[in-house]
Amino acid sequence: MPFQNPEETGYGYAIERYVTRKDSDHPRYLELNSARVLRPGWPHAKRFARHLIEDAATIANAELEALLAYEWRSRLTAAWLIGVGRRASFRERLGDLLLASEVCYSGSAYCFALARLGTHADAEILTAYLDHYLPRTDLRYDQPAALGALLRLDAHLGTYHADRFTQPGGLWDQWVQALVHLRDHPAYTPEEQRRWTDLHCDFANGWIHL
Length: 210
What we know:
The protein has helices spanning 13-19, 28-32, 45-58, 61-68, 72-85, 91-100, 106-117, 120-133, 143-157, 163-166, 171-178, 190-206. It is an all-alpha fold. It has one domain (6-209). Helix 5 (72-85) runs parallel beside helix 7, helix 7 packs antiparallel against helix 8 and helix 7 (106-117) runs parallel beside helix 9.
């Protein structure tokens, strides 16, 4: 998919308005890509969350499309806005971007958004991604985030899509064992990936009360 600078399509303002705006000590995209938003007592939490909710509700679809067509910072932020606002019309677009895996960092945001959308269609997208990328034991892309999102959806939907990936000796174990630096790492268990997805989604769910 070709990259297109929003400046070229009349949406250059969207970068400053949604991606690099500061509601804390750092630009929004950087906070979203870190764990600071989940840290208890983070002093910027309420303002950051309130503005993110407002933007997720008011950003135009054309502005989201412009951000998704650009680089990782814009794509990551757009995916978060889609997830927080549950913009289901972007499901297929997110699925295409996730499978393409063109840029770093943004893939985990696509997985968050799909987990937030919360339907069987989202589970199918994540399953297709894992079918494609877990056998690639030479690549560390967004397999952990995808598995965590799928496990959350399975629990929510009463389905078992992730079972064949997480069974002993299955594709998840094979992938982890093939990447030496991940072997025996406590962060790379299915349970930990599910917990990490739950933290993000539950925190996002809590924002509606602000």
